[in-house]
Amino acid sequence: MTERTLALFDLDFTLVPFDSGMQWVRFLIANGMLEAGFDEAYLALCQRYIAGEGDAATLHRFVLGSLRRVPAGEFALWQQRFAATLVEVLPEAGRALVARHQAAGHLCCVVTATTRAIAAPFAQLFGIEHLIATEAQQDPERRFTGEILGDLCHGPAKVRRVAEWLQARGDDWHAFSHTIFYSDSGSDLPLLRAVSHPVAICPDTRLRRHALTQGWPVFDDLQALNAASAGGAERR
């Protein structure tokens, strides 16, 4: 049987060294679609979440509120404009990591809590066809409501969402000889535990501690990972 590899990538602070929601918010502020200070309010919520004083759903709903400011009929155009601003900020190390997996014929997918509306331009620029993300609720006129559709793609929900995606493809976890997930966050421990090859990238305190205890590979940036992989440290 031909060996197959599934490569899963978190987005924020993993493939890119920043918060994709903040990048979107600041793009809208720069173009007059959001008032100044919206980014500072979002940052304050992020800091509260990191301190354990807020929940992930509240954080993501705040960003979803920004989608309501863009007229429904113009959203695709604003996505394209946003994508154009990302070309210069996507790290080459992230591109190289994805390209290496694609060159090896691996099935690649971004798995992120970021809403699909914001995450899609990133996935497209990395050349990754498949994206599992938080879905934004829309009304019958296709206007964003500011609410999450279904569950937030976060924590244990990521494991379920990946399994559902694989099932829809006619696959399951057992169809792959190697399953890899790259992440920076302790909130991703459920999915990291579910794969055969978890990799911690610039991990937060919780993930670093767990990864070191379990003997998982830990890299403080993608450049270090790519250098190690070039030397044969990463299993293919």
Folded structure, characterized:
This protein is α/β, with parallel strands linked by helices and 236 residues long. The protein has helices at 20-30, 38-50, 56-67, 75-86, 92-103, 116-126, 156-168, 189-194, 205-214, 222-230; strands at 5-9, 107-115, 130-138, 144-149, 178-183, 197-201, 218-219. Strands 4-3-2-1-5-6-7 form a seven-stranded mixed sheet. A hairpin with a 5-residue loop joins strand 3 (130-138) and strand 4 (144-149). The chain starts with a strand and ends in a 6-residue tail after the last helix.
Number of helices: 10
Unreliable segments (pLDDT under 50, ≥5 consecutive)?
none
The total strand number stands at: 7
Q: Give the neighbour order of strands across the main sheet.
A: 4-3-2-1-5-6-7
Features:
236 residues, alpha/beta, seven-stranded mixed beta sheet, 7 strands
Q: What topology does this entry show?
A:
Layout: E1 5-9, H1 20-30, H2 38-50, H3 56-67, H4 75-86, H5 92-103, E2 107-115, H6 116-126, E3 130-138, E4 144-149, H7 156-168, E5 178-183, H8 189-194, E6 197-201, H9 205-214, E7 218-219, H10 222-230
Parallel strand pairs: 1-2, 1-5, 2-3, 5-6, 6-7
Antiparallel strand pairs: 3-4
Helix pairs in contact: 1-2, 2-3, 4-6, 5-10
Q: Would you kindly provide a brief summary of this structure?
A:
This protein has 236 residues and is an alpha/beta fold. The protein has helices at 20-30, 38-50, 56-67, 75-86, 92-103, 116-126, 156-168, 189-194, 205-214, 222-230; strands at residues 5-9, 107-115, 130-138, 144-149, 178-183, 197-201, 218-219.
